[in-house]
Amino acid sequence: MRSDIIAWLCQGDPSIIYQVNRDLYQKEDSVLCMLKEDISKDGWGEQLLKLQKDDGHWGLGYYQPKWTSTHYTLLMLKNLGIESSESLVKICGLVLDEEKGRDGGISPTAHRVHSDCCITGMFLNISAYFGIDQQRINSLIDYLIKMQLPDGGYNCRHPRYKVHHASFHTTICVLEGLWEYESQGYTNRIAEVIATRKLAEEFLLMHHLYLSDKDARVIDPQFLALHYPTHWHYDVFRALEYFAITKHPYDFRLKEALAWLSSNEVESKFPLSPKYPGNMHFQLEKSGKYSRINTLRAYRILKAWNLLEELDDHG
């Protein structure tokens, strides 16, 4: 890895410094613990924590507005790598008390009849990361296992509407949640969770992450973007990061996606696409030529399949 690029990354937010040392250098736990503590003391993590209200929520409550609600703020804090805390565990518990649907998933609506797979997957991701007691999230697992479609993926419109194909957006949200549950050592229905996750992975792989399985066309041009944060949106970058983080063996069906990622490299750095519509608490980075966040994400992906040296040589 090029030392000048690493030095540039480490001039960024404490969350980036922590992840560089965790994922690129795999430093010892004692070093990582100190770096992780810094996320809540300075930078983006500190700013987000200061915006938490007396009732524990952000924004106007659990799911409004996008992207300053409790849901998306917690997701951002998780993705920054912040430490769990009493206040974060407490608000997760409050969400589980107040936002569960009758079917056991998360349903931020008044009627609570049908939960939303996408939101449930994201909240499983959040609550498992912050260490919520297993009994509190068992119903989320039951719901997600039940909601898997025959093609292996998920669709947030199911079962409210008759659907014939999974959604990439919903599937990646569920995959991330199932992986976090598994990686944090939860055990309820774990064999089924693993089997469910593998089937959902295959849904993405059979499409080479972004191509039609019928005619190999690009399914959606937005899949080929470098957004951050992604919120609930799917793109190839996010999918590649999932497969890298889960240490998935190299699969030939990742070839096109990895080539696309490398094609976005400029001087060993990666850009940031314009943000999705909607207000955020504050801007992490400006859309432009270089992004520390996306460069870190790209390096993490390339390192997973021993492609990082190729990037360095090109740069």
Strand tally: 2
Give the radius of gyration: 19 Å
Distance between the termini: 10 Å
Compressed to H and E, one letter per element, the order equals HHHHHHHHHHHHEEHH
* Nearest-integer average pLDDT: 95
Please characterize this protein's 3D structure.
The chain is an all-alpha fold and 315 residues long. The protein is built from 14 helices and two strands. It has helices spanning 3-9, 14-24, 29-39, 43-50, 70-80, 86-98, 117-129, 134-147, 168-183, 190-206, 236-245, 255-263, 292-304, 308-314, and strands at residues 270-272, 288-291. The chain has a two-stranded antiparallel ribbon. Helix 9 (168-183) runs antiparallel to helix 10. It is globular, with a radius of gyration of 19 Å. The N and C termini lie close together (10 Å). The model has no long low-confidence stretch (mean pLDDT 95).
Give a concise summary.
The chain contains 14 helices and 2 strands, in the order ααααααααααααββαα. The protein has 315 residues and is an all-alpha fold.
Question: Keywords, please?
Answer:
mainly alpha, two-stranded antiparallel ribbon, 2 strands, 51% helix
List the helices and strands and how they pair.
Blueprint: H1 3-9, H2 14-24, H3 29-39, H4 43-50, H5 70-80, H6 86-98, H7 117-129, H8 134-147, H9 168-183, H10 190-206, H11 236-245, H12 255-263, E1 270-272, E2 288-291, H13 292-304, H14 308-314
